[in-house]
C-alpha cells in the first residue's frame, strides 16, 4: 500500500501514538475509537492512525488528512468516522487534539435524562456543559456513525464551545489544547461518569462542582498535565 510522508513533527506523531496506546490501556478505547491532532506544520490538516485498534498503533500507521477529512497521499484504509475530527477542527480553530471513544460509563448519560456534570476536580473541565448529540435529529435513517461531512458538522455544532459532547447510543468526543489534554479529558470523563453513577446510589443530592470551581480547577490541572502524561506514556509502552 502506498504511504506518503506526513507533514507533522515527529514529536506530534509520537504523541498521537502514545495517546492511542494510553487510552487503550486505561480502558477508554478498545478495538475502536481514535485520537487525532491538528498538524503543527499545516494547521489546515490533521493526523491520525489508519484504521487499526488503538493499542496496536505505531508511528508508521499515522496518516495525514486534509480539511475535508480525506486522507492525503496514502492508499491505506482510514477511519470511517474521521469526519468527527475534521469538522471539529474546522469549527474550533483553537482545538489541537480530538479523542472519540465508546467509553462504557459515559454511554448511559447519553441515553437517559441524567446530565453528566463534574463531581470532582479532575473532571472540572466538564463545567462548560456536556451536550448530547442525537443523530436522529440530523438523519432519521442512520447507523449511529459520523460517516460524512454533514454529520460531522452537526456534531461539531452540538459540541459548541464545550470540551465534551456525548453521542446517543454511541459514546463521546472530547477536545483539548494538545494530545495530552485530550487524553486527560477522555480518561477523567470516563471516571467522572463512573463516580457520578456511584454517588447516585447513595443518599443525595449530589454536590456537583460549581462553575467557578470548575474554571479554577481546570486552570490548576492544566499546570500539571506533564505528570500523568509521563506516567501514562511509560506504562503504555
Give a written overview of the molecule.
The protein has 237 residues and is of the alpha+beta class. The protein has a single domain (10-228), classed as L-fuculose-1-phosphate Aldolase (3-Layer(aba) Sandwich), CATH 3.40.225. Helices cover 34% and strands 13% of the residues. The chain contains six helices and seven strands, in the order αβββαββαββααα. It has helices at 10-25, 82-91, 149-159, 179-200, 211-222, 226-235; strands at residues 34-38, 46-49, 62-65, 97-101, 132-133, 164-167, 171-176. Strands 3-2-1-4-7-6-5 form a seven-stranded mixed beta sheet, sandwiched between helices. Strand 5 (132-133), helix 3 (149-159) and strand 6 (164-167) form a beta-alpha-beta unit. The longest helix is centred in the last third of the chain and has 22 residues, at 179-200. The radius of gyration is 17 Å and the shape is globular. The two termini are 26 Å apart.
Which keywords apply here?
alpha+beta, 237 residues, 34% helix, L-fuculose-1-phosphate Aldolase, globular
What topology does this entry show?
Elements: H1 10-25, E1 34-38, E2 46-49, E3 62-65, H2 82-91, E4 97-101, E5 132-133, H3 149-159, E6 164-167, E7 171-176, H4 179-200, H5 211-222, H6 226-235
Helix pairs in contact: 1-4, 2-3
Amino acid at each position: 500500500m502506498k504511504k506518503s510522508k506526513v507533514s507533522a513533527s515527529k514529536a506530534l506523531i509520537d504523541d498521537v501514538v502514545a495517546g492511542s496506546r494510553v487510552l487503550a490501556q486505561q480502558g477508554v478505547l478498545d478495538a475502536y475509537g481514535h485520537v487525532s491532532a491538528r498538524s503543527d506544520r499545516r494547521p489546515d490538516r490533521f493526523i491520525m492512525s489508519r484504521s487499526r485498534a488503538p493499542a496496536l498503533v505505531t508511528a508508521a500507521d499515522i496518516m495525514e488528512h486534509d480539511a475535508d477529512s480525506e486522507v492525503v497521499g496514502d492508499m491505506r484504509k482510514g477511519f470511517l468516522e474521521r469526519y468527527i475530527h475534521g469538522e471539529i477542527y474546522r469549527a474550533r480553530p483553537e482545538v489541537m487534539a480530538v479523542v472519540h471513544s465508546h467509553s462504557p460509563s459515559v454511554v448511559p448519560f447519553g441515553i437517559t435524562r441524567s446530565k453528566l456534570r463534574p463531581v470532582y476536580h479532575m473532571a472540572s473541565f466538564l463545567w462548560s456543559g456536556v451536550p448530547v448529540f442525537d443523530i436522529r435529529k440530523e438523519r432519521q435513517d442512520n447507523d449511529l456513525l459520523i460517516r460524512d461531512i454533514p454529520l460531522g458538522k452537526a456534531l461539531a455544532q452540538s459540541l459548541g464551545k464545550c470540551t465534551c459532547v456525548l453521542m446517543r447510543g454511541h459514546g463521546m468526543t472530547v477536545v483539548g489544547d494538545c494530545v495530552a489534554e485530550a487524553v486527560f479529558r477522555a480518561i477523567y470523563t470516563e471516571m467522572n461518569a463512573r463516580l457520578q453513577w456511584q454517588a447516585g446510589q447513595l443518599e443525595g443530592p449530589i454536590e456537583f462542582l460549581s462553575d467557578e470551581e470548575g474554571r479554577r480547577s481546570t486552570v490548576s490541572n492544566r499546570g500539571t498535565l506533564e505528570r500523568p502524561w509521563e506516567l501514562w506514556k511509560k506504562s503504555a509502552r
